[in-house]
Write a structure and sequence with these properties.
The structure holds two protein chains of two kinds.
Chain A lengths: L1 H30 L7 H25 L8 H17 L4 H25 L4 H20 L4 E2 L5 H6 L3 E7 L2 E6 H19 L1 H11 L1 H6 L4 H27 L1 E2 L7 H13 L9 H20 L4 H25 L1
Antiparallel strand pairs in A: 1-4, 2-3
Helix pairs in contact in A: 1-12, 1-13, 2-7, 2-10, 2-11, 2-12, 3-4, 3-5, 3-10, 4-5, 4-10, 7-8, 8-10, 11-12
Chain B lengths: L1 H21 L7 E6 L5 H17 L2 E6 L4 H14 L3 E4 L7 H9 L4 E4 L10 E3 L2 H15 L4 E6 L5 H15 L4 E7 L8 H14 L8 E4 L2 H13 L8 E3 L5 H9 L3 E6 L2 H16 L8 E3 L3 E3 L4 H5 L2
Parallel strand pairs in B: 1-2, 1-3, 3-4, 4-5, 5-11, 6-7, 6-8, 8-9, 9-10
Antiparallel strand pairs in B: 10-12
The chains are: A mainly alpha, B alpha/beta.
């Protein structure tokens, strides 16, 4: 009996956020009966959160080590600008995409070197590169929004396309390409973090960096690689964003960073040890996306929405940390 | 465990109480107004003007601010299309949200631009003539300084409606061979634009210490003009006759013009008039009319010390 209770307690501790999420879904389903719990709406939500999801999934990789990357938003903007400028120069779509991803890798490499080899704290290092990447995006674009004919149709229709999964109101219902991209990134990050020695070592660094080093983990190199993956994820998200808005603007990724960190924190409340796991991050993103979608459909004032979302993040993290302390 | 349950319950109860107070009746025509720029004073007047008319017409209006995030505008358009609103009004560059506009078009929901930009997927766009406004203030500056001297420009090319203004000012100043552009500055607007413009202007003042070396500051909107004014006053150079002009005639700018200092002119867009005209366009379409005019312009007024009193109370 006692052990059953203890097990239940442990499960509840881990699942407070999940229960909250389910309560929110039930509430929206009751209050928005015709449209909320429908396949088109959920495909719609999945597409809306896809860019944030890619940033947050790859952000999880550095957060596993207890680091974080503040530069992801500017990197997303910069990647979009790099691709758009190449498009304007009539270069093939593939070249623009590859160049943007390479820029992401290089940006991540810079972050990684600063943090791992020079030893600057991630906060300061990535705050610095946040400003640098943003400045470079402004410099390259001359501060302008690149849009219209400069963006090839092949690129901008990608974000509107998808795999047909049925018909709704005589229009094809698409499983969005952007959602597929996010799912692919999810699977890759999940495999890397949960199924490889590389991932286990990152968790070891996050647990105790000295112990990991003494245990023979090549901390510096792994950290460098982790930051590069995060940088490339940010660049991919920037490309998805640019495709979705069919334009590139030197500030357009700016909102991604804080939401991505918030999603990882929400996800961390699901883990017994308070570690980030990519499945938890997925739940964190879903919470943010579902709240945005449901509250919009319920005509809730957008400022009230922001207050609610912030309060929910604080509430979820508070309750899980209180419980961990109370153990 | 109890604490978690308590926390989540409290949160959920609080959330639902808040929602309960804002959920409205469903039967009146329902219109969603979506913008990333609600924090800007001009946008607030637009929305208020629209809401005033909409309330008179008995509509339910849902105002959605995405806090600067353009992709979120697409998401919110998709949400309200799903929800089945009767019309959507956007205040954002339509070229950047065409994915959302297409979704609305597929669902047969009309979308209107309120100071947005022209687009084939919009029924119409209601706005001021940005070219004409910039021409008014750039001409004012040119006349005041006798077509000669150094001019500092504050521009913002990433936002197309403001970029238009800069282009016209470039042309007018460029047409006066004795006018030199000392600097063409794009301020950082994340803090609203005043503080960074002030800092940039302080640097320009430091680089041009000779009285008379700076004849005028032309700003594409009021915030940089106000920042420049602060910088000039802080440097003690307010008596050099530097002419400052802005555009939009926001309350702070009107106060500055009324005070009779360096800030001499701005252009008043009739934001609430644009909001009302947008509501009028929505009403016409909901009544079954077809609108052929791709852009509907609402007149603007040059505000100087001569007529600023007319605007101060409004």
């Amino acid at each position: 009996m006692v052990s059953t209770q203890a097990q239940l307690g442990r499960w509840l501790r881990r699942s407070g956020t999940l229960i909250g999420f389910i309560v929110v879904i039930v509430y929206f389903t009751i209050n928005i009966p015709n449209t909320f719990l429908t396949l088109p709406n959920w495909l719609n939500i999945s597409q809306q959160i896809s860019m944030l999801a890619v940033v947050a999934f790859t952000m999880t990789i550095v957060m596993v080590m207890g680091d974080f990357d503040l530069s992801v938003g500017s990197m997303a903007s910069l990647a979009g600008i790099v691709a758009a400028l190449l498009f304007r120069d009539s270069q093939p779509v593939l070249l623009g995409v590859v160049a943007a991803l390479v820029v992401g890798l290089i940006g991540g490499l810079i972050n990684g070197v600063l943090v791992s080899y020079i030893g600057i704290t991630p906060f300061v290092a990535t705050l610095g590169t946040l400003t640098v990447f943003s400045g470079v995006a402004f410099l390259l674009s001359g501060g302008e929004t690149i849009f219209g004919r400069d963006i090839p149709a092949d690129f901008s229709t990608f974000a509107r396309g998808g795999i047909p999964v049925g018909m709704v109101n005589e229009r094809p219902l698409l499983f969005p390409n952007l959602t597929i991209m996010a799912l692919i990134v999810f699977v890759i990050v999940w495999v890397v973090l949960e199924q490889t020695a590389f991932g286990r070592r990152l968790y070891a660094i996050g647990g105790n960096v000295e112990a990991a080093r003494l245990g023979g983990v090549r901390v510096r190199l792994l950290r460098l690689i982790a930051f590069m993956l995060t940088g490339m994820g940010a660049a991919l998200a920037g490309l998805m964003y640019a495709s979705r808005v069919a334009s590139a603007n030197p500030t357009q990724g700016a909102g991604l960073m804080l939401d991505a960190i918030a999603a990882v924190f929400l996800g961390m409340t699901l883990s017994e040890e308070g570690e980030p796991h990519v499945a938890g991050t997925l739940l964190g993103i879903l919470i943010l996306g579902v709240l945005d979608n449901g509250l919009t459909q319920m005509k809730v004032d957008s400022y009230v929405r922001e207050v609610l979302i912030g309060a929910i993040i604080i509430g979820a993290v508070t309750s899980s940390s209180l419980n961990r302390r109370g153990r | 465990m109890r604490r978690i349950a308590l926390f989540m319950t409290l949160l959920v109860v609080a959330a639902f109480t808040l929602m309960g107070t804002v959920v409205m009746a469903q039967d009146a025509p329902s219109v969603a107004v979506i913008t990333p720029y609600l924090a800007q004073p001009g946008t607030q007047f637009l929305v208020e003007g629209f809401q005033t008319s909409a309330t008179d017409l008995g509509w339910t209006v849902n105002v959605i601010d995405t806090a600067g995030d353009v992709a979120a505008v697409i998401s919110r358009i998709e949400d309200v299309v799903n929800q089945g609103v009767d019309a959507i009004v956007i205040n954002v560059d339509p070229a950047q949200v065409s994915a959302g506009l297409q979704t609305a078009a597929d669902a047969g929901i009309p979308v209107f631009g309120m100071d947005a930009g022209a687009d084939a997927l919009l029924i119409t766009n209601v706005t001021s003539n940005g070219y004409a406004m910039a021409a008014e203030t750039a001409t004012y500056v040119t006349d005041r300084i006798g077509g000669a001297g150094g001019v500092v420009m504050f521009v913002f090319d990433p936002y197309p409606p403001v970029q238009k203004r800069g282009i016209i000012a470039d042309t007018i100043f460029g047409n006066n061979p004795d006018i030199t552009i000392i600097d063409r500055i794009t301020p950082d607007v994340t803090d609203g634009g005043i503080a960074d413009s002030r800092a940039k202007m302080e640097a320009v003042l430091a680089a041009n210490p000779e009285p008379g070396s700076i004849k005028a500051v032309w700003a594409a909107w009021d915030q940089p003009a106000l920042g420049a004014l602060q910088a000039i006053e802080a440097a003690g150079r307010q008596n050099e006759g530097i002419v400052i002009v802005g555009i939009d005639a926001n309350p702070q700018a009107l106060d500055a013009i009324a005070a009779g200092g360096n800030f001499e002119a701005s252009v008043a867009q009739d934001f609430s008039g644009i909001g009302e005209a947008t509501a009028d366009a929505v009403a016409r379409v909901l009544a079954g009319e077809t609108i052929n005019q791709r852009v509907i312009y609402v007149p603007t007024t040059l505000v100087t010390s001569a007529n600023v009193a007319d605007f101060l109370g409004s």
